[in-house]
Request: fold
Amino acid sequence: MKPRSDLRIPGMLAVIATMVTSLMAPGLAMAADRDQAAKTILITGANRGLGLEFARQYAKAGWSVIGTARTPEKATDLMALGVRVMQLDVTDSASIQRLAAGLEGHPIDLLINNAGMANRATSFGSLDFDSVKRVLEVNTIGPMRVTQALLPSLRLGSTRQIVSISSDLGSIEKNTDGDFWGYRESKAALNMFNRTLAAELGDEGFICVVMSPGWVRTDMGGPEAPLSPADAITGIRSVIDGLEPGDNGSFRKYDGTTVPW
Reply:
């Protein structure tokens, strides 16, 4: 017959193993949290609407969030999220360069070119070209300038994703009425920028897409829009999470469907 002490050894080893596993589990969870927290997203125009919802959801998911606003001291809702708030006017080259300098050497995993504006000219005859120029500067040239300036930081990122917020109104194929002069053109041009950017950066492992959030209840979309910002951004995040190299250069809707060019 074996001594009683020998009989207790397997049980003692099991207890020790359980204790070690329990002690390691928080460390493993913390390591996973650090890996997630190490991912950085920069969102332009994050002080309201879709940009604010992007910041809210990604911060909640554990990302390191950088949200930009033209006037940071007035971005109270954004600051309340506890994210990093930086000044940016996408039409001001000096502002863009200051942002890039402040992030030099800092990896950015995901860039959301969200800042935008809308105008609504209902007929070509009533079109105000100063308004069109402003819309193009914000919606098209702005994302081009920001992306170029932040490219060094994006190259340091692990996911190398660039998402620009477009619109169904930027689809040439879906345009069947005369409305939203200027805004349509700005988004169609943004789509072409993304397509060209995707072709140039694809070999570096970048995935560049344009996305339509749908008709959303924001200051821009109005109170009659069927989608809430939370629903639209939840859908967009799901699409972003599932992006693969083959999606580079595509035009997608918040629900994952492809939008015709």
